[in-house]
Amino acid sequence: MEPKEELSGVPGMLRPFKAYLKEVGLAPGDQVTYYGCPGTCTPFIELLGFAVRDLSLEQVYVPYVDETAAKAIRPVEGVGMQVSGDAVGLDPKVIVLMGGLAMPGVPVTKEAVQAVVGAHPGAKVVGVCFMQMFEKMGWLDAFAFEMVIDATLDPVRVWR
């Protein structure tokens, strides 16, 4: 899979994601399910969810690949989108795999993620990562990604 375009900043991550969800012909109420690491992936999932809040989709967060812990992502007025405490059933039309799952030391294997994806035949698979994590860990060939968004955080500048 070769990059088709190079964008920048937060809009460069969010606009293609929203455009993709519009293009695949999802119906109102269809489910987009994000799989990612608690804490580190969650803010990015909420940001992606905020970008598509007007598409009338059901959005769900699954910590790691523990589908029994699936939670609804809901709008919070004056805040944005947040993972709620509401448990939900799963019927993903789009699966979003976050790059944190591929990081070394994360308590989930590529094979476990493949098994979860395989349990939802027909769901489209999107990847969102940073710093070429899917490429570095061999995930680009391990999943049938329809789209991958790979953002870069270099340089990170700090003033004190």
Automatic annotation (TrEMBL):
Native species: Methanoculleus formosensis
InterPro entries (UniProt xref): UCP004962 (IPR009183)
Protein name: DUF2124 domain-containing protein
Pfam family, one: DUF2124
